[in-house]
Amino acid sequence: MKQTLIFSLALLVLFFSSSALFAHEHEDCDHQENCVDQKLDVWCTGSVRAMLCSSCGFGSKKDNCVICGKWMGSTHIPAYLCSNCGFGSKKDNCILCGRWIGGSGVPACICGNCGFGSKKDNCVKCGKWRGGN
């Protein structure tokens, strides 16, 4: 009886911890499916989302590509850092100016040209493939 109870509690803990991974909490996502895909991508590859500080992401500046600087229009592709460039406190720095973001970061994006094909799978800082560790 005790083993069944412990097993049931372990399953409940596992269920609730995995559902917290997929909880929709990003304001920058248009749809929950995109948000879940981004969280799975970060969880599987070890890469983190590139961010802009409040100065670089203020007003219409957040609509410019972080690689080429051109206006993105409606093609906002999320920008990511590889596991090396996003390791430790480096992920808390602005991708453009290098200043500390704090709690007011703006998610960085790349345009359709810079993110075309497999280029969207590269780190926006070093250009290396950000796939598996």
Give the helix/strand layout.
Blueprint: H1 2-21, H2 32-45, E1 48-49, E2 51-52, E3 77-78, E4 80-81, E5 106-107, E6 109-110
Gyration radius (Cα, Å) is: 18 Å
Structural class: alpha+beta
The largest beta-sheet arranges its strands as 1-4
Q: For the terminal residues, how far apart are their CA atoms?
A: 42 Å
Helix content: 25-40%
The total of beta strands comes to: 6
Please count the helical segments. 2
What spatial form do the alpha-carbon principal axes imply? elongated
- Regions with pLDDT < 50 over 5+ consecutive residues? 18-43
Order of helices and strands: HHEEEEEE
State the major sheet: 2 strands, antiparallel
Average pLDDT for all residues: 75
Outline of this structure?
This protein has 133 residues and is an alpha+beta fold.
